[in-house]
């Protein structure tokens, strides 16, 4: 299953909820304000193992809009996200 989180982890608990409910083999996509988690040390510790397993995706456009660069996780363009959803089925959106 693909879990998607769009809210900043600095203001919302959606990232914590998604991480809590993820099962082995699940994947996580950070988009919109959730991409900020990549720059927060407390979240990096939790997200880097997902990235190491190829289970963390980050929307490239959202990183660019916030002046961030992903040094871990797999950046995705919108077309790649469409392909990922086609592969994995309907995502679980956390909001």
From TrEMBL:
It comes from Zobellella taiwanensis. This is Sulfurtransferase complex subunit TusB. InterPro entries: DsrEFH-like (IPR027396), Sulphur_relay_TusB/DsrH (IPR007215). The lineage of its organism: Bacteria, Pseudomonadati, Pseudomonadota, Gammaproteobacteria, Aeromonadales. It holds the Pfam family DsrH. One of its GO terms (molecular function) is transferase activity. GO terms for cellular component: sulfurtransferase complex. Keywords: Transferase. It comes from the Bacteria. One of its GO terms (biological process) is tRNA wobble position uridine thiolation.
